[in-house]
Structures are given as C-alpha cells and as structure tokens.
Amino acid sequence: MRFDDLNWMDLETYLAGEDRLMLVVGAFEQHGYLSLLSDVKIPLALAETASKKTGILIAPPVNFGCSPYFLSYPGTISLRVSTLIDVIEDIIRSVYHSGFRRVLVLNGHGGNDPARMRLYELLNCLPELRLSWYSWWTANSVIWIAEKYNLKPAHANWLEAFPFTKVADLPARAKNPPRISGFLSAVDSRQSYQDGSFGGEYEAENQIMDEIFQAALQDILHLLKFE
Amino acid sequence: MRFDDLNWMDLETYLAGEDRLMLVVGAFEQHGYLSLLSDVKIPLALAETASKKTGILIAPPVNFGCSPYFLSYPGTISLRVSTLIDVIEDIIRSVYHSGFRRVLVLNGHGGNDPARMRLYELLNCLPELRLSWYSWWTANSVIWIAEKYNLKPAHANWLEAFPFTKVADLPARAKNPPRISGFLSAVDSRQSYQDGSFGGEYEAENQIMDEIFQAALQDILHLLKFE
Amino acid sequence: MRFDDLNWMDLETYLAGEDRLMLVVGAFEQHGYLSLLSDVKIPLALAETASKKTGILIAPPVNFGCSPYFLSYPGTISLRVSTLIDVIEDIIRSVYHSGFRRVLVLNGHGGNDPARMRLYELLNCLPELRLSWYSWWTANSVIWIAEKYNLKPAHANWLEAFPFTKVADLPARAKNPPRISGFLSAVDSRQSYQDGSFGGEYEAENQIMDEIFQAALQDILHLLKFE
Amino acid sequence: MRFDDLNWMDLETYLAGEDRLMLVVGAFEQHGYLSLLSDVKIPLALAETASKKTGILIAPPVNFGCSPYFLSYPGTISLRVSTLIDVIEDIIRSVYHSGFRRVLVLNGHGGNDPARMRLYELLNCLPELRLSWYSWWTANSVIWIAEKYNLKPAHANWLEAFPFTKVADLPARAKNPPRISGFLSAVDSRQSYQDGSFGGEYEAENQIMDEIFQAALQDILHLLKFE
Amino acid sequence: MRFDDLNWMDLETYLAGEDRLMLVVGAFEQHGYLSLLSDVKIPLALAETASKKTGILIAPPVNFGCSPYFLSYPGTISLRVSTLIDVIEDIIRSVYHSGFRRVLVLNGHGGNDPARMRLYELLNCLPELRLSWYSWWTANSVIWIAEKYNLKPAHANWLEAFPFTKVADLPARAKNPPRISGFLSAVDSRQSYQDGSFGGEYEAENQIMDEIFQAALQDILHLLKFE
Amino acid sequence: MRFDDLNWMDLETYLAGEDRLMLVVGAFEQHGYLSLLSDVKIPLALAETASKKTGILIAPPVNFGCSPYFLSYPGTISLRVSTLIDVIEDIIRSVYHSGFRRVLVLNGHGGNDPARMRLYELLNCLPELRLSWYSWWTANSVIWIAEKYNLKPAHANWLEAFPFTKVADLPARAKNPPRISGFLSAVDSRQSYQDGSFGGEYEAENQIMDEIFQAALQDILHLLKFE
Question: Most buried residue, B143, D48, D187, F41, by most Cβ within 10 Å?
Fold first, then answer.
C-alpha cells in the first residue's frame, strides 16, 4: 500500500489505528549495467512486499541521494549533502505533524548515511518519535548469504542485480576490482571503475537473489515491530 | 522513456544525439477526494505521453513540493521553500554536468513556483543552458477549455479529477467555494476548505478531461521544440 | 505616516490601539526609461495615500528584490531568492514581536513572489498573525482598466509610467514586444529586451494612470480591513 | 544624486566615467526619543551632502540592520546576522557586476559590523574591487569633537540628536548611564536602558552637531578618493 | 610537529618540500569513565607519533564533532551536522589555498562521518587534491587484534581506555551491553547507557592497548604515502 | 582545570555547585614571526591561570577563527564568518543544555567579533543565560600599560610576543607600519604587511609582558564574578 492510491481521508482513517510508516530513500546514479534507479528500486520492492504483509504504508520515495563521486557518469543526479539532509528533515517533520510516530527508513544508497545524523537531531525535538534506518546490503543477514555463496558484495555487481534492476545483458566474466586508495573525485572515479561496477561477479543465480531478498524482508518485518 | 529503465551507457548513447530532458516536479499534499500524489501523477502522465511521441527522456520525479498551508491535512508532506529550491538546483546542475542543455520542467503544483527564481540564477552561471517551466493548469489552452464548458478550475475540484487521480467516489453536487481573504495557516486552511477542494464541480465528463489532457500535451510538445 | 517620523514610544502608543501594518517590498532593477526604483516608488506611493486615509503605519521599504534576469542592465541590484526570503521572515518576526498582528505586504515586483511561501511557513508558527499580499499590477481592478483602454500591461511600459516614476522622456511610438520562449539569462534578457521595456505603449494619459492608482488604492483600503 | 532619479541608461553613462558608489547600511531600532530610523538618516544625510559635492552615486539604503538586543522596544526590526551578511554580499556582487569597483559603505549602526567580514571574503573573489567602511561615530575626528566639548558619545544620546533625527522633545536633564556588565538580552536591555538612551546629555547645541557633521563629511570626502 | 610551534615562514619552508598534512577531527562527548576529550586525544596521539617518524605536520585539532545522542550527559558539546560539514570544508579549502595537496583526516568519532560526503564534493572543485580518511577503530588491523583477544570493541569501553584517556578508576567487572533498537534521542540514550559505556570490558591490558596503537600507527604511516 | 581531564560524571559534580564556564575562541593565522596559534595560546594561558585561581572550567578551545585577509600567508586557516557563528551557537547551546548559565568567552582574535551578534540572538531564546566577551588586547587596562611604556599595540608586534608565542628570533629594529586604506584582500594584505606584523616594536621587555598578562588576568577574574 503506497500513499499514491490514497486521499487524505484514507490517511486519517489509517492514522486512527496505526502510526508506522516506511520511507524509501534512494539515489539516481550509475550502477554499471544496471538501472540508474537501482537504489530506489531495491528498497521499494522490499517495502512493497513488507507492506502487503503488514498493511503498513510507504511514503513516496526520495528518488535522489548523494553521489558526488559518480557525477562523471552520464545520468547521475546528486543532491548536495546539505540538501539531502534538509529533505529528510522536512519529510520527517511533516509525517510527524500528520501523526506518524514510528518511521522505518529503508535506505538504498550508502552515500545517504549523513542524513542519519539529522535524524538524531530531530529525535531531540520531536517527542515520542521513533526512528530506524535499514540499509539492506549492510545487514548481517545479507552479508552472511553472500559469504555462504562465496560472493563478494560491492556496488553494481551481482549484489544489486535483481531481476527488476537489470536493464541490459550482464558480462559473464567477473571483473577484477580496481585498487583504490583514499577518496576519488568524479573524474578519477570514472577512470578507475570504467563500467561502474566495483568488481566481482556481475550476476548471481536467481535463487541466491531470492534468498537475499527474503533475508532483507525478514529484517524489515522485524524492524517494523519497533521492539 | 523514463530514466529508470536505463543504465548510464544508455544515457551516454542518448546524449550523443539529444540534449533535452523533462523534469517532473510535483507535490504530496491533500487533494480532497483525489490521490495525495495527484500533483505528480498529472504532469508525469503528460510527460510519459510526450516521451512516447518524441523519445525525450523523463528524469525521476520530485515527489515533494511546498505545501505548508495543507500540513493539517493528514498525509501532506511539505518541503521548506529553501529545501525545494536547493533540490531543483542540484538536479539541474547534475543533468547539466551530464550534458543536458535543454530542460523542460513540468510542474504539478503552484506552491513550487519559488523554484523558478533559482532557475534564473542558475542560467547566469551555466552557459548554453535553456530552461522552460510549464504548469499545465495555468496554460491558456487549458483555461480556454474550462471556460468553454463553463467550469471553474480550482485545487482538487474537477480540474484535477483525471481517471488516474481518482481514488474514491466523488460528490455529485458542486461545492460552494469558501470565501478566503489573505493567507491561511495550515489550521485555518483545513477549517476553511473542509474536504480540501477549493469548490465547484468535483468531476467533469471524461471527454472534457481528455480535451484538457490533449491541450496540455500539445503545449508540451511545442515547448519541447525549444524554439 | 511612516515609521521614520516616530520613536519607539510613539510605536507603543500606536500599538495600544492598532495592530495593522503595511510593508512595502520592492526591487531595484532596470525599468527601461523609468526610474530604477519604480518597484519601490509605486507601492510606496499607494501605501502613503492609504496611510493618510487610515492612519495605518508603513514600515521602512525593502528596497531590493529578486531580479537575476536583469543583472546585465547597469544598476540592477538583485538579492538571491534565499536572501530575500530570509529578509522578509526577519521583518515579519520582528514586527510580530512588537505586537503587530495584521500585515499587508504591498509588493512592487513579480520576482518577489517566492517570499510568499515563507509567509505561509511563518503563519504555522506565529499564532494569530494575519497576512495579505498585494501586487497591484495583478489585481483584477487594474487589469480591467487596462482592458478598458485597450492597453496591454507589461514590465516598464505605460503601466509603470506614473508621474513619479518618470525620470526621462519616453518614446512616443509603441514598442513591438520581443518574442520570448522559456527563461532568459541576464545576458539574453538584455539582448532581447534592448531598452528594457517588455513592449507596447510607453505612456498612457495621466487620467488613466490616476484611474489605475485609485483602483489599486481602493483594493488596499479594502484589504486593510482584513475581513 | 541617488539611484532613484535615474534609469539604467543613466547608470550606463555614469559608469562610463566613474566606478565609485556609496552604500548606506542602517538599522531600524529604538533610539530613545529620536527617530526609529536614525541609523539610516544620519549616514544618508552625510552621503547626500557628499554626493552633491562629488557627483558620486548613492545606492538605495539598506533600511534594516542587526538589533537583537532592542527587540523588546516596539518598532525595532532586526535582521538575523546571517541575513544581513547575505544582503550585503548580494548588493556588492550586483554592483560589481554593473561595473562599480570602489564602494564606500557608510554604516549607521554598530550592530552591522559583522558584515565587514563577508566583505573581506568577497575581496578574495572579486578582482580589482576596493571597499571601505565608515562608521561616523567611531571616527577619530568625531570623537575628538565630543572630547573637546566634554560630551560623552553614546547610543541615542546627544550624539545622534541631529535636527533631522529629532521627532520629539528631548529631556533637558542628562541621564545617568545604567551600569551594564556582559551582554544583555532584549528583555534585560529594555529594563536597563528604560527610555533607550545609553545615558549622558540628550542634546547638544546645533553648532556642535554641525561641527560633527562637517567632520564626518570631510572624512567621507577623503575616503571617496580611495587613496 | 604541530602547527603551533611554527610561524608562517616555517610553513612556507615546509611547503617548499612537502604537501602532506594530517588533520585530527574529534569530538567532545561523554565517554563513560574516560576523558570527555577521548575522541581528540586518541587520533592526536597517533598523529603525533606519526609526525615524529615522518616529519609531516598536524593541523590544530577540531575539538568538536556531532554527538546529538549524548547531549543529556553533562559536558557533551555537539555541533549540528551542517556546522561540522562547513568547518571541515573551510579547513580543507584554507590548507589547499596554502598549498597542501594531500590531506589525511584522522577521525576520532563515528558521528563525524557525514563530513566525508562534503570531502567528495570538494574533490570535484579542487584540482589535484587528494584526501584520505582514517577512523582507527574501524580499521581491519584494529578489529583483528580485538578478535584475537576476544574483546568486543565499543564506545567508551576498553577499546578507548588508553593510558592517556583514563581520568578515573575503571570498573573491574564487564558491563552487560544494553539492548538497543533503532535511533535513540539524547534522553533515551542516557537512560539506556547509564554510565555511558556501550558495554563489555572497561579495560584491557596495557600490552593489548599498545598493540592496537601500533597497528593504527602502521596504517597511518602507510596512508601517509598516498599510494 | 580543563575539560579534557574530566569525564561526564566529573562534570555532573561540577555543575551541582557551579554554572560558570570559560570558552576560548582563537584563530589560526599568520602572526609574523610568532606562532600561528598565538590567538589561541594567549587567551588559553589567561584562562588556565584564571582557572587555577577560581576552579572555573575551560571548554576545549575553538582553534579556528575568521581570517580571510591573511589567507595568502601559508598556514592560515580561516572559517567563513557564517561557519564561525554557527560553531559558537552550537557550543553555547550544548553547554546551556548541560546546565551552564554563565559563560565568559575569551576571544583571541578581532576577526571573531561577528560571533558576538549571534550571542545576542541566543540570549533572546535561552532564559537565564548570561554571557560576557573579553578580547584582552582591547581592554582599557591593557591599552593603558601600552601607553605607559609608549608602545603602540598592533597585530603580531610586541603586543602578542609573549614567551609562549615566540617560536623564532624577533627583529631588533622596529618596523615602519605600512599605510593602509580601506579593506585589503588576502593578496594585497600580504603585499602590504610583508612579514605579517602591522608594525612597531617586535618585542617588549618580559616585565612589561607580565604586567599586561596580569592586567588581563585581573579583568578576567573580575568578569568571572558576573556582577
């Protein structure tokens, strides 16, 4: 259940019996051979599955994140870190004003982590608000599966190659991860990463991807209990 | 053609032969009986139709706008005006960096107009950039149709009741527009507007809505020529 | 009655019996053959006449607005949109703190509209505050007069050529309005508009200008009732 | 010669032979028995006299400054320090863009000093710009006259009681300056300063005020040489 | 070698032959029984040892970081995330202007991570700048030692109990880590963490601490090569 | 007593019987032949002596200030004025939250004065807070000693040449102060001031420096009474 099929009266009804919300924060950036919108698509797919099981609402996704290091790849749209932080604050304040009290942020992009600090600041001024933040690819449950199959998770490699993020054929042969030290500018980043993947296998079997999806889903269902 | 079905290589190919882009800027706010996401849905529907005809890309939509006056209606999410302006700047700078030079902003919400001023500021620092801004409901072509059918256009009345924004049955009887003077706070706004519509008919015949959609579409197709 | 002839004790006396204020927000920008300060002079003249009739105070004018598109005309001074919005906020908060509760903003420049959104935001945090915004040239009463005399209102044409804004002889012959599409940078703006007028007659008869002035004045007197 | 009697063509002519400008930055705040606009009126009177002698232009005045400590006196309007700094930056950037290269800021209010630091920052990015800042009451020439007549200069006492800032009768008897330690909040400030004067004589003989005005004028004429 | 024993001529000499710099970014926040300044002391001690071996300069430390969640513990001083980010930007821009081109940030506090994103943004505008960021407690080399001794690293437990951060006796008995889910406000944080340690042993043997210090030092010496 | 030898429990004990704090705000900038950190070292030395006599705590110093005009001297690190102001606000808000109510700012650098205005703004929102600001070199007590010995105080001359700020031999012969008019950019500043001293004697006898130190110390001890 997404917000867009509802009007405000539906929200009022919803809020009479529920104060939980899922907020998807993604990015629009190069993902090698995968969709530019992968970082929205993955957490949104998880949110939609979780919503079907729990009836908990999903706010409209934040389609942009912080990706300054990928700006030399055509198509990447990056918010300044100060902008993203303000966007997240405004959304949280608005939904708090509406009556939501427990918000699970489903983050799709590592570059969005700075927004977490603003959430801590908000908790000090919005009484009774509870917030959680879930970045699926950093979850122990997901990492464990990767290790089980001896696959190394990385940006734009097999880890993000779900059926719904694939928009082109993927190379059959694994990529040698480039050796990186320190921070890269956008120009250096493109020079180092070439096709955009951080290396390793480009694809894993569907069953592995399912396993990962299910593991993340279980985490989310657990987090939605706000215990 | 939306960005989300593409990877960055596709973008590179696209940019080799084209420098135009459509950017949908919406809002997430009360629309009476209509979808909370109406201000995204309408310009996005127009953009998708225009894209099918022209092959011009659509950036991922900005799902939030400035709606401080509707914050007392559950579900409304409002960005501060300073935040929205920064979001728009960051997006324009990013796509300019990618190589886009002609951007048509398809705006879905009157409260987003302040962002226009930042666009003028950007034009003074980004050479060869061309920008247009289209708010469909303010177009002469659309107003003329409304007048032809003797329908008064207003927020959350028939004007925005497209098949794809309707999420509930609409009242059969027209609403008496409340008398408003000056600016309203969120609290006063809800007290004045009650169900959220600014008054008049809640619904028009499908054929009228089609006519309006086509008129706006023609405007967009014309603007995309950037003549 | 302007603030500058008063000391704070006078203000205290005033506020004991009155909580209304007029605030003039102008611009300092090219106006073709007319004064660079036209956008302050016109609303200030209206405010002074209204003040004489009602005794309602006028705050010192904001002499600068948002005019990025005219920066290539010598003399134009433009505030960034973020700056103007903050100025307006600070003024409103200050006068609210003093005890004013009803403020009519008399705006002289279209580029200042973004500040309206901040006013809505302020209404949500300053209880009992009432705000109105009047841009004289957009008023139905004024537009109606222009239509009556078959004159097309536009920037720096006859519409703004009041006796007190004229600082040079005006061309006798009407100007062909340049054809503009999309947003213009400062450089393109100067190239398109040449002398700065947006076209049409440069001057109207004094009696017409009087009629317009009186119409706007009546609007203001009505708005000052805050009904 | 003030900007308001000119159009942009006049400015273009002016800039062909001259690159100097005077900018008055004032305040709107309690001045005891004197005009709330004293901090604009004094530097503006000086600027106008200097302009008559030199033909150097005066920009429209900044009518507001930083006066947080006086906000409990009715009528005081205070910009946040961050806002004032941005206003000054925007004005300087605009006039630099117009072609001005030497700007003398005539400051009327001690609380505006923070803006000086932004001017230093601007000098590092705007080549060939030269800036001076003159706060008349801190000038040696003025202090010397005060000492000569054994008068102690202070906010809202005789020092600022020029014929054009007087808007009420002034107390005949000198005021005992309150003993202040540390910074005062707006509330404490009003409690300490009562009528708003910082103490001492309320008025000096016209001839002394003339002498001070002339001394400041000579300073300004000298600074306008930008030697 | 710290900056404070040098004058600008020394810096000029230094920069003639070297362009590397270490910048310590710490925090001032509760660390249980340990010094409030632990997050400065640890990276600074590492920097000083590295400086003795390499001759590379250390900038004056940033003594404050982002610690909103600890504000209910007396003594904690927290910068807003937006402030910290600006501080880091200004420092990097200044040292870049001086001629430094390779900067290793030695971070002492996890809450400072958002500043990393601004560094990426800066790399896109400051040519030839190279930046690295080292948070000693997240280094594989350090984690490996902790695992070797079967000690669990956490905030304000044995991990940070170096001889130079101890300012009081430490409890002999290990602490049961509180169970935390989601983000904590400052109030909840104090209630959950009580004495401020995140749990586990309060102290480890000196030889272990030495081993950790040496491991981090080796990492730093390696990073200073900027290979 | 500095914060860094304490843990939060110590602070809690301290705050049970005391609500005063000293905050040192310095700069990191060229000081001619003297230490780049002179503006921290001097107020910190004063604070430490005062702390020994009174037991009043010293917060960790702010090691950076506003020095845009010295950026062309290697080693100078300058915060934008907006950044410094935010840093000071965040520190004051944090210590206020901890329970401090009387804060004496010991400022070491004239360029930091803009932060004073933010302190006034804070006093209007933080009840019962008391703030003082002491810039030792502007104190009458210090100026009087300089006059007694016929020494002219100036940046980076004898005035700041304390035993603990000297890091190199000082020229024996006094420097002719350069003639400056108006504001200087960083480039012009270096060209004008050459070695960085503003002129006059480079050194005074130790006994004079002691006298000055003691005078400033007495001022501080008096201010710490917050009478």
Answer: F41
Angle at C183 between CA C83 and CA C36, to 5 degrees: 55
Given a contact cutoff of 8 angstroms between Cβ atoms, the answer to whether A56 and A50 are in contact is: yes
Nearby residues of C81 by Cβ (< 8 Å), 6 or more positions away: B85, B114, B117, B118, B121, C66, C114
DSSP string, C82-136: HHHHHHHHHHHHHHHHHT--EEEEEE--GGGTTHHHHHHHHHTTSTT-EEEEEEG
Q: What is the pTM of this model?
A: 0.97
Hey, is the C-beta of B17 within 8 angstroms of any chain A C-beta?
Answer: no
Measured between CB atoms, does F61 come within 8 Å of chain E?
yes
Cα–Cα distance measured from residue E183 to residue A117, given in angstroms and rounded to the nearest whole number: 10
Q: CB–CB of C218/C145 below 8 Å?
A: no
Burial code (b: 16+ CB inside 10 Å, e: under 16) for B94-130 equals bbbbbbbbbbbbbbbbebbbbbbbbbbbbbbebeebb
To probe the interface with F, which of D72, D85, D120, D130 has the most F CB atoms within 10 Å?
D120
Chain E CA closest to residue F68:
E94
Q: How far apart are CA C221 and CA C214, in angstroms?
A: 10
Tokens of A110: 């590592």
Secondary structure (3-state) at F17: helix
**β A57-58/F102-107 pair status:** unpaired
Closest listed residue to residue C108, CA positions, set C164, C184, C169, C188: C164
Give the closest of E12, E83, E91 to F90, CB-based: E83
Structure tokens at C82: 């973020």
Pull the structure tokens for residue D95.
């006039």
Whole-angstrom distance, CA of residue B110 vs CA of residue A205: 48
- DSSP readout, E122-183? HHTTSTT-EEEEEEGGG-HHHHHHHHHTT----TTSGGG--TTTB-S---SSPBPPPP--S-
Alpha-helical runs (H) found in chain B: 8-17, 38-54, 81-98, 115-123, 140-148, 186-193, 206-223
pLDDT digits (tens, 9 = 90+) for C46-88: 999 999 999 999 999 999 999 999 999 999 999 999 999 999 9
Residue D122, pLDDT > 90, answer: yes
| Interface touch E7/F168, C-beta < 8 Å | yes
Instruction: Count CA within 13 A, CB hemisphere, residue D37.
Output: 19
Phi and psi of F182, rounded to 5°? Answer: 75, -170
From A89-98, A214-223, F180-189, the region with the lowest mean pLDDT: F180-189
Contacts of B12 in chain A (CB under 8 A): 74
From the list B4, B63, B195, the residue facing A37 with the nearest CB is: B4
Taken as a whole, chain C contains a residue count of 227
Instruction: Compute the distance between CA of residue D31 and CA of residue D46 in angstroms, rounded to an integer.
Output: 19
Cβ count within 10 A of residue A187:
14
Of F136, F78, F130, F75, the C-alpha closest to F107 is F136
B206 Cβ under 8 Å from any chain C Cβ = no
**Both structure tokens of C90:** 């600070």
What's phi and psi for B206, nearest 5 deg? -55, -40
| Each residue's pLDDT tens digit, F19-63 | 999 999 999 999 999 999 999 999 999 999 999 999 999 999 999
Q: At what angle do helices B206-223 and B140-148 cross, to 10 degrees?
A: 160
Q: Which residue has the tokens 């109606």?
A: C144
The answer to whether C126 and C19 have CB atoms below 8 angstroms apart is no
**Can you tell me the distance from the alpha carbon of F48 to that of F50, in angstroms, rounded to the nearest whole number?**
5
